[in-house]
Structure formats: structure tokens, C-alpha cells
Amino acid sequence: MQTRKLATLATTLVLALVLASGVQAQTVVSSDVSTNTIWSGEIILDGVIFVNNNATLTIDAGTIVRGQPRTGLQVVGDPTTAPGALVVTLDGTILANGTAVNPIIFTTAAVDNDQDGVADNSTPGDIYLDTWVAGDLFLDDTPATAPLAPLNADGESNVSLWGGLVLLGEAPTNLADTGNGLGRATVEGLTVPGFPVANALYGSDPVAGLEADSSGSVQYISVRHAGDQIGAGNELNGVTLAGVGSGTTFSHIEVYCNQDDGIEWFGGTVNGDHLLVQFAGDDQLDLDQGYTGTNQFTASMLPFFNDVTGNFGVASGDKGAEFDGDDASVSLDGTGKPTPFSNADFYNFTSAGSVMSTIYNGHTNNNDGWEVRNGYAGDSFNGVVYNTSDGAGPASDRQGIDVGSGGAAAGFTAPENAAAGLITFTDVICDDVAAASGVPETDALVNFGSGNIGCQDGVNDPNFALVAEDLSFTPTGVAGKLDSSLGLFDMRPLDQSPMTSAGSPGPVAAPYRGAFDPTAAKWIDGWTVFSIAGMTPVPEPGMGAMLIAGVLGLTVLPRRRR
């Protein structure tokens, strides 16, 4: 394995190397971003890079940010083996604003010098991948035009090839004081001690009034092949949002082929829109610690069997969504109810399993739909859950929507919250799910909302416009790249179907079920992996102007209130 040098006290090393092949100028970053900095071209993260010291990091549209793979076993107290990752700390700001035609891509710096479609590992008996040095060829060499397939040429998962993107803010959580102050903790996935505690802290006291805290703006970004695991329950996700406040812009975000969760919220108040997660090895969406934001237009697709190991990522996908209300919760109102109390709202969501079959995928919960549990409260509107497996295992673990128990203070479990009208699913449809779909695991009287039109088992609902409804495909592509030979994927409902009439208005008027308007250009067009690979249907005539009109330039936000 090639040796990586970490220069934690050095200034940023700029190579400014333009190769004969015409690739972008390459900049290796091996020290923290502690002054206002602009990134463009191709950035290589040599270790965990923190944006701190009140600095603002601006990433230009079209920039490719690559993280080095980890170089050894992660040991508490020794951060030198950690994979490349980008962490925006409490006192840092990020302005990463891509566009629909020029997204910002976060991917791996893993090497493939022999171009065999498999990341190089030049040390016999060493499980860790070679890290990139100037002149090496990248495994993911053309991410803007030919994305990597979910599996490499040997049938192994293209995940955990770098760390991920972490945003840390000062919005409240419902965590008790564990030594860092009420509502404040160190984020998962970093070896602390080892990295400075100050660089890993997030959250605040629920009465501190920091709900509108801003970490900056991220728009039109694609995060691919990330994720890392220090130990059970201690992982880097594709995108981690910990204590991130509502002053932050979080819009048009893709996470593709991640080892653990796709997007995870740890408390906070940030709102989001147009979020796409494909093939995350654990949960596609995950939230806890009293998250209270609103998200509209979210789409997710669970993964599949890995051809070699049987699992993809952590466990071949756990759930489309796993929502919890509390963790190490604190109550400030004398009722025992966690503060802040969970209140997450989701509008216009589509959650798809990858295969509707009788084959058990090897995970305890078997490619589930949405599960809410552990004191969660919130409302979900205008949604679609389909193709969650109806294979082996207890029916309660194979539901389209599952209201589970456990974890919360007495009187505030998820079934009790639902019975009190604090959890609703309105204008939501389940299709091709287990027979028990929509039946709560512990309470048969949960209110799913008066607009719910029911769940169906084993029925190919004619309201979908899917080219391949079961989403079952061989995901290796040609020479390890995705391309349209694998088929087209269209998760829109058919125009004029019952799914195009939903009565629950969201932040943006969208009178249809699911994440996609049946009559308009898809918001995933142009900048996401499947779109770049030609695996989504071409937009209808006349839709190009709408797509161009939605392109966003650089947005400069005011500094967050301190």
C-alpha cells in the first residue's frame, strides 16, 4: 500500500498538475481550512479536513472533490489512518452550490492504475486500498460523464471508498449533558479523542434559541461511494447533518452507493428539498435526537445482493427510512417528553425497494419501507412506498410502513404518539409490499390519516409509469460503468392516475403522490448518477427551458449568528 503523508500543521499543498489527458487541475488538501478558501478543479482530501476557525469554504460549481480511502484500522487516539472526509465544524461555513448542468461531485480518490475496474491494493495480505499520488489513475476516473456502477468488476460493492460529508451546527438536539453541555455531543464516525473534540461537536441547549443557525449552503451536489465504520453504531454516512439549523440551505442532494446510511439527521432544524438516495447499505434516510425540520421531494431506492458477499454496504439495505424521536433524551417540561420533541414533516416522498421477490436479502428487516419508532412524532404526506420485499422473516419486519415501539419515555412511544394524532400518514399509498403493510407492529389503531388510500400486496399497480417496476437489474454495467443498457427507471405516476390527486399541500404546491410530477421534467435530470448514465427517460419536449430555469448560481449567505 502506498504511504500517505499527513501534514496536519502544514498549509494546503497545491500541485496544480494538468495532465496530458486534459483532466482538471488537481489540488491536494492535507490541512484544515482555517481561512476563507475557494476550491475548484479537482480536490483530493488527504485525511479528514475540517472547516473551522470561522472560515468559509466556497466550492465552485463543477468541482470534483475526492477523498482518499482509509489506510489502516481506526484506533481511538490515532486519526492518521482515517479516510479522506470533509467536516464543516460549528464555527465553519460551506458554500457548495452546483447547478443542474454543473453539479459538485464528491467521490473517491482510490486508484486503478491497471484499469481493471477494481481499486488497487498493491500490498499482499493488506486489506486497505492504495491511496492516490500524482500521476496515478483514479478508479472513478470520469464521474461527470460515466459514473461507477454499484459493483466493481469483481462483483464487490463500490462503497466505503472514502469518508463522506459532515455538517455540524448549533441547532438544538434532545441529548442530555454528557460532559459537553446540554444538547451537545461529538459526532459519530470520527475518532475522538484523536481528532480535537472542538472539531467534532454539534448541537445546543434547546432553550438557547439557535434554531436558525446556518452552516451555509449546499445545492446540486452528488456524494458517491462514501461511508466508513469505526465500530457498531459509529459510522460516517454519505451526508451527516448534526445539529444543523434552518438557516442552512440543503437542496438537490444525491447520495449514491454509500456503506452506511445515505442521509442522517442528528437533531437540528434544517429543511431540505429534492433529496435522492440510491443504494445506501443501511437506511436510505435516518433521523433521531429530536429533528424538527421539513423536507419535500425525497426519493430513495434500496440496494440489492452483492454478487460476491451477499450484502451491499453494511447489510444490503435496511429501510427506506428509519425515524427515531429520542436518543439519550432530555426533558425540560416536566412531562418526560424529550425536548425538543420530534416533529419531522415529509411531503412528496417515493421510497422503493430494489426487488419485489421472495428472496430474503439477509438483513433482519429485509429491505423494509418506512419505520418510525422510539418516540418519533411527525407527519408524512403524499407518499409512495413500494417493492419492499415480502420474503422470509416475521411479517412485522416486512411492512411498507411500520410503527414500532421501544426506546422512548413512557407515554411517548411511537404507537402512543400515533394514537394521540402525533404521527400521521396522509395521502400515502403502499404497493407490492408484505401483506402486513400499514398494520402497526404493536398497535392496530394507529392513525394513518384520512387520506391514506391503502396498501396492496403483490399487485402491480397500474398507476406507476415504471419502465421496470421491480427495479431488479444487474448493476455492473459495461466495464464497471453504469449505462442505459441496464434499463430505464421512471418513478413518476402515470398522468391522470389516482396518484395525481393528493390533498395535502406542502411548502411547494404539488398535488400528486410521490416525489415526481407526472407531467413535468424530473428534478433528477442532468445532475444525478442515473441521469448522467442515460438511465432515466429523456425529458418531454419543451421541458428543457424549465430545467434551465431551475439552475442556481452561487448563493452567498450571511454569516451565522454567534
Short description:
This protein has 562 residues and is mostly beta strands. The protein contains 3 helices and 29 strands.
Q: Key features?
A:
3 helices, 27% strand
How big is the Rg?
Answer: 22 Å
Distance between the termini: 44 Å
Instruction: Give the class from helix and strand content and strand pairing.
Output: mainly beta
Shape: globular
Overall pLDDT, averaged? 79
Number of strands: 29
Q: Proportion of β residues?
A: 25-35%
Which percent range fits the helix content? under 10%
Question: Could you walk me through the main structural features you see in this protein, from its secondary elements to its overall organization?
Answer:
The structure is a single chain. With 562 residues, this protein is mostly beta strands. The protein is 3% helix and 27% strand. It has three helices and 29 strands. The protein has helices spanning 414-419, 529-532, 544-549, and strands spanning 13-17, 26-29, 37-39, 42-45, 48-51, 56-59, 64-67, 85-88, 93-97, 104-108, 165-168, 185-186, 201-202, 216-224, 228-231, 234-236, 239-242, 249-258, 263-266, 272-280, 285-288, 294-301, 319-324, 344-352, 368-373, 378-386, 401-403, 423-431, 454-455. It has a 16-stranded mixed β-sheet that branches. A nine-stranded parallel β-sheet has the order 5-8-11-17-19-21-23-25-27. The radius of gyration is 22 Å and the shape is globular.
